[in-house]
Amino acid sequence: MQTALLLLPDFALIALGVLLARRGGFAPQFWSGIERLVYFILFPALLLHSIARTSFHAGTALALVQSAVGITLAGAALGCAVLAFRPDARRFSSGIQCAFRFNSYVALALASRLGGETGTANMAILIGVAVPLANAMAVFALARNSERSLLAELARNPLLVATLAGLLFNLAGGTLAEPVAALLSRLGQASIALGLIAVGAGLQLRHLDSARLLVGWFTFVKLGLLPLVAWALAHAFALPPAEARIVILFGCLPTASSAYVLAQRMGGDGPLVAGLISLSTVVSMAAIPLWLALLG
Questions:
Q1: For residue 247, what are the domain limits?
Q2: Domain for residue 208, yes or no?
Q3: What is the DSSP string of 11-26?
Q4: N or C terminus: fewer CB in 10 A for the chain?
């Protein structure tokens, strides 16, 4: 109950986004602009500020890296189990990414809520490792329908670039000047609320009836099995309680909204992916507090 109450304000922001998108009178272009602002400016500032100011223990950082790889690969492997039922190839290749990709907006907002600046920095390491791996697997699954370059996709990912820049700055022993730190801090604070509102504004629970087996399995893998994988890895690597909780949170996250964009760009089933993203986001509102209470 305590965990649910702690996370309630963040989930309330998602609900506010749903309400504003449907009753606020804002044009679709408004929400597109908000998402671009958060994705390219505000969240990178949050990542850079948090990572640059946090002291990392080498052993713990390595365990976080291994956990991120293990959880992401487990999601892909478990998602592929549905191939035994011979699903439609286009729908499978579009939806499989929803079994292992994660929403960075929700990840950073909840990590900040649970662990403060250190929690955000630890989550940033998980994201920084998992983003290129998850993107590579998602692009590979859809590759037959597109000629887009994986390296170009990764090089343009602002969350990955900010994470790497922050880590290099940290390892080099750099210290942020106070005006720069203050600017990044204010931009990062703005990213939390706007990012979660944008998540809510993008929800659309449609186009799910046509692929119930895929929808059910991918959602079960993402929110029913990966939290257990995350818990097992956290214990296997003997992570301290605070870091273990962030790893478990990482295993509970809903699917990334960018999965829809990728499916659309690469000739996949975009509407199905949009429905999967929305379903996982709604279900995660109950799954995340439950898993953190049971395992964290």
A1: 28-295
A2: yes
A3: HHHHHHHHHHHHHS--
A4: N
Q: Residue 266 is which amino acid? A: M
Summarised one tens digit per residue, pLDDT across range 237-264 is 999 999 999 999 999 999 988 788 778 7
DSSP classification of residue 237: T
Q: Helix, strand, coil shares of the chain as percentages rounded to 5?
A: 85, 0, 15
- Cα separation, 250 vs 195, whole angstroms: 17
DSSP codes, 130-172 = HHHHHHHHHHHHHGGG----HHHHHHT-HHHHHHHHHHHHHHT
Residue at token pair 């296997």: 236
- Asked whether 222 and 232 are in contact (CB, 8 A), the reply is no
Q: What is the distance between the alpha carbons of residues 118 and 9, in angstroms, rounded to a whole number?
A: 20
7, part of any domain: no
Tell whether 5 is covered by a domain: no
**Based on the structure, what is the number of domains in the chain?**
1
